[in-house]
Amino acid sequence: GEIVCPDGYHAENDVCVKNPIVDPIPPGISISFPENGSSVQAGTFNVYGTASDNIQVKSVKVGIFDVTGTLTIIPYKVPQGITSWSTSFTLSTLGPFKIKAEATDAAGNKAVFESSVTVTPGPITCPPGQHLENGVCVPDVSGGQLDQFGILKIYVDSSPADTRTTYRYNR
Description:
Elements: E1 9-12, E2 15-18, E3 28-33, E4 38-41, E5 43-52, E6 57-65, E7 72-77, E8 84-91, E9 95-105, E10 110-120, E11 130-133, E12 136-139, E13 144-146, E14 152-158, E15 163-169
Parallel strand pairs: 4-10
Antiparallel strand pairs: 1-2, 3-5, 5-8, 6-7, 6-9, 9-10, 11-12, 13-14, 14-15
């Protein structure tokens, strides 16, 4: 006779076999940082986000691509964590890029999230004795000016009277 199998099973060669899991629903993935449209400074920066699925997220990978999303700049790598993941990248090239995060669920369904970022120049570090002023390193002497002989004049406000004393400093 014919074999009758319980729900969730089907007959195969006169034996009841469990039905395969049918999961047409792809996982969800997003990049929380850096946000789409934001800028990151050149150098090392963190990337983090989340992934979810109705059954199970099996893997996550993250990579950096050109602005069109087709040319690989930094190949996909596996971040720390799965449902809440994070990694870091080091990028010295300035300009627009796409960060892509891809999640795969237990059934093999994939989802990709893209975040467009612009890499901007990193912080400028000035040598000792200089500080940053309007994006340029300048000497650490404030309020001074060179006279016609190349002598730096530093003005020091004296109190309580509103008078100025001139000190001469030869470089």
